[in-house]
Design goal:
Elements: H1 2-9, H2 13-33, H3 35-38, E1 41-44, E2 47-50, H4 60-91, H5 95-115, E3 117-118, H6 122-132, E4 143-144, H7 147-158, H8 163-166, H9 169-172, E5 180-182, E6 195-200, H10 206-214, E7 227-235, H11 237-240, H12 245-257, E8 260-266, H13 272-286, E9 292-297, E10 300-302, H14 304-312, E11 323-328, E12 356-365, H15 367-376, H16 385-395, H17 418-421, E13 426-428, H18 432-444
Parallel strand pairs: 3-4, 6-7, 6-9, 7-8
Antiparallel strand pairs: 1-2, 5-8, 9-12, 10-13, 11-12
Helix pairs in contact: 10-18, 13-15, 13-16
Biased composition (Basic and acidic residues): 11-32
EC number: 2.4.1.-
Enzyme class: transferase
């Protein structure tokens, strides 16, 4: 071997050059016969396999490992995608649905923003803030607007309320405006009632609630049609005291009669609008199939038999957008600061209210609960409840229907006689004892009410 090496080293330059030429020719001939060498490929079990990377050679084991890693990565990515898709299916949140829900949430947030807009200036806001602000509520504080934004809002939104026709109850009712302390969410579960009575009452008026349950709001007055009675109340200092006897009494009533809806807003006269809207909200969410609804107060005598038999049943199939009561036409805002119905110029600058029905008692078709509640989300609040509902109806382009007899609905006290009370629907300012007395006398003379001396 040493001699062979030495002989190679002792070759002349010409001999070495000749040897190189011969080696290159030999390789060229081999490459010509074996395309694997020419294509930078390799043999596997007698097959010519192209490496995919010219100019570099790979060992068969390295190539196999590289391909296995590729397959493992592909399988892993597929499994991750499958798990993610499965999670979306379980939650019911496909991308298209996520987009829709995000859009609905944004729309709801926009509506809530508009619901807080009002024409109050800062000084008037401070005067009303204490009486209007709720307790423990997520309702935003009413905001004041500068004139330019106010004009823009009125021209773009208040003049066109068509959004209410496009929005569904599901979008509106995702959150409770106020926490329920007492609720009856299943009151309409078994059947759609013919009539729901929303009776606004102060927490302390226990005697009034008892008298009403025994008389004109008793379930028996509707026969088999179906009547639901609900007392709408908020909270005050008496109900929020520790170990409050009044609150315990209310809860006992609720447990016994299942007819009290209590939420955590401040129960005051200036919050009657809010109270009414919470009744509308309850109908919209828990009793949307109700045929008719009546909103009234606890100091009212209501001849529900006349209401059902003479006014509502003769209408046949319940119609939509029906609203009736004592019509208040061409009423002007009261600018007397000493008046109970005082309306500041800054709050309502107009010279006339739209036609509205006295808040002592009005009746409407069930579909209007949702329409009015939706409208209220973008119409600035007023503390006069019946005026405000009339404004909502005007923005919805719904004209209240005049009652067939102008003496049916009364916002004053009508002197009792069985003849008079058998032919009216409401009378105002009635004491709980009188409610029971008048109802019992009317029932005993219902077949000949006008032949008695009382």
């Amino acid at each position: 071997m040493a001699e062979h090496t030495a002989s190679i080293c002792n070759r002349t330059d010409e001999q070495q050059a000749s040897h190189s030429v011969q080696e290159k020719a030999t390789k060229k001939n081999v490459a010509h016969r074996d395309p694997c060498i020419k294509m930078q490929s390799f043999h596997i079990s007698g097959l010519c396999v192209y490496s995919g990377r010219p100019g570099k050679s790979h060992k068969p084991k390295e190539i196999m490992r590289w391909k296995r890693r590729q397959r493992y990565c592909s399988v892993a990515l597929f499994l991750i995608g499958l798990v993610f898709a499965g999670g979306l299916v379980i939650q019911g949140q496909w991308p298209s649905q996520i987009t829709k829900e995000k859009s609905a949430a944004q729309e709801l947030q926009t509506m809530k923003t508009f619901s807080n807009l009002t024409m109050l200036k800062t000084t008037k806001l401070q005067e009303f803030e204490q009486s209007l602000s709720p307790l423990n509520s997520n309702e935003n504080v009413i905001l004041a607007l500068d004139e330019s934004l106010q004009q823009e809002l009125e021209s773009s939104l208040l003049s066109n309320i068509s959004l209410s026709e496009e929005m569904t109850a599901a979008r509106i009712l995702r959150e409770e405006p106020y926490e329920y302390i007492l609720n009856e969410p299943n009151a309409c579960l078994l059947r759609a009632p013919f009539l729901v009575l929303l009776i606004e009452v102060e927490p302390k008026k226990t005697a009034a609630r008892d008298a009403i349950r025994k008389t004109w709001a008793n379930e028996s007055v509707a026969g088999g049609l179906g009547l639901i009675r609900l007392f709408i109340i908020g909270v005050n200092q008496d109900t929020q005291r520790n170990d409050s006897i009044l609150q315990q009494t209310i809860e006992e009533e609720s447990h016994r009669y299942h007819d009290i809806i209590q939420q955590d807003y401040r129960d005051t006269y200036n919050n009657l609008t809010l109270k009414t809207l919470m009744g509308m909200y309850w109908i919209t969410k828990y009793c949307p199939e109700a045929k008719y609804v009546m909103k009234t107060d606890s100091d009212m005598f209501v001849n529900t038999e006349y209401l059902i038999e003479k006014l509502l049943k003769p209408r046949g199939q319940p119609t939509q957008k029906y609203f009736t009561g004592l019509h208040m036409l061409d009423f002007s805002p009261n600018r007397n600061k000493e008046s109970k119905w005082y309306m500041p110029q800054e709050v309502y600058p107009g010279s006339r209210y739209p036609t509205f029905c006295s808040g002592t008692g009005y009746v409407f078709s069930g579909d209007l609960a949702q329409r009015i509640y939706v409208a209220s989300l973008i119409i600035p609040r007023l503390h006069l409840e019946d005026v405000y509902v009339g404004i909502c109806l005007a923005k919805l382009k719904i004209e209240p229907t005049p009652p067939p007899n102008e003496l049916l609905f009364n916002h004053w006290r009508v002197p009792y006689s069985s003849c008079r009370y058998s032919n009216l629907i409401t009378s105002h300012g009635i004491h709980p004892n009188e409610i029971i007395q008048y109802w019992q006398h009317l029932q005993s003379n219902k077949h000949n009410p006008c032949q008695t001396t009382w």
